[in-house]
């Protein structure tokens, strides 16, 4: 591990409809006595002075976990790509850690490995699991904002596809790596 990694912003994506959770705001669902987003915030808070949450509802509640909250320009829940673009409008550091609000088992070791890979490669670093990219676990340079905006204007709605047009560096993780668990159905909240 290098002596010091470049400063980073952290962008937590919490702007979805929560369809698989009955329309409830996933990041605010309780797990082990506190909202899912609180578990992630606790891990990333020591990493940054620029914690941004992209959310399309409950901004006053999310504000307690962030330095800044943003919403998508299109209020019809257009997906993670829109959330990343909104976040890149306000982040202050060149490197941005992107995480989903429903991944409370993420740890510092995984985030540091992504940051180290991104800095070493001067490119987006993303988890790869069993041959599949996981864009909700990535570190990307802020300079991609115009590229992602152009992809959006061209009709792209997939964050993974938009990022895959750039050089990606893979952080390989095992298929059963619990740190990458997405709590996207109600049964998982009982774990």
Task: Name the CATH superfamily classification.
Answer: Spore Coat Polysaccharide Biosynthesis Protein SpsA, Chain A
Order of strands across the main sheet = 5-4-1-6-8-7-9
Content-based structural category: alpha/beta
Span of the ends, CA to CA: 33 Å
By CATH, the topology is: Spore Coat Polysaccharide Biosynthesis Protein SpsA, Chain A
Measured on Cα atoms, how large is the radius of gyration? 15 Å
Description:
- There is one protein chain.
- With 191 residues, this protein is an alpha/beta fold.
- It has a single domain (8-190), classed as Spore Coat Polysaccharide Biosynthesis Protein SpsA, Chain A (Alpha-Beta Complex).
- The protein has helices spanning 36-44, 59-62, 80-88, 108-121, 145-153, 159-164; strands at 8-14, 30-31, 34-35, 51-55, 68-70, 95-100, 124-129, 132-141, 168-173.
- A 7-stranded mixed β-sheet has the order 5-4-1-6-8-7-9, with helices on both faces. It has a two-stranded antiparallel ribbon with strand order 2-3.
- A hairpin with a 2-residue loop joins strand 7 (124-129) and strand 8.
- Helix 3 (80-88) crosses helix 5.
Features:
27% helix; seven-stranded mixed sheet; single chain; 191 residues; alpha/beta; Spore Coat Polysaccharide Biosynthesis Protein SpsA, Chain A; two-stranded antiparallel sheet
């Amino acid at each position: 591990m290098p002596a010091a990694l470049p400063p980073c912003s952290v962008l937590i994506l919490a702007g979805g409809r929560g369809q698989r959770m009955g329309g409830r705001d996933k990041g605010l669902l309780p797990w082990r006595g506190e909202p899912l987003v609180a578990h992630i915030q606790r891990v990333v808070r020591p990493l940054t002075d620029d914690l941004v949450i992209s959310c399309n509802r409950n901004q006053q509640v999310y504000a307690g976990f962030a330095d800044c909250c943003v919403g998508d320009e299109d209020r019809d829940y257009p997906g993670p790509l829109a959330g990343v673009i909104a976040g890149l409008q306000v982040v202050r550091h060149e490197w941005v850690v992107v995480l989903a609000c429903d991944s409370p088992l993420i740890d510092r070791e995984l985030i540091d490995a992504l940051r180290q890979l991104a800095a070493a490669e001067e490119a987006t670093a993303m988890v790869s699991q069993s041959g599949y990219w996981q864009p909700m676990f990535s570190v990307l340079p802020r300079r991609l904002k115009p590229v992602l905006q152009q992809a959006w204007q061209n009709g792209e709605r997939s964050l993974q596809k938009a990022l895959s047009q750039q050089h990606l560096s893979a952080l390989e993780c095992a298929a059963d790596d619990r740190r990458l668990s997405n709590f996207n159905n109600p049964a998982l909240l009982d774990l």
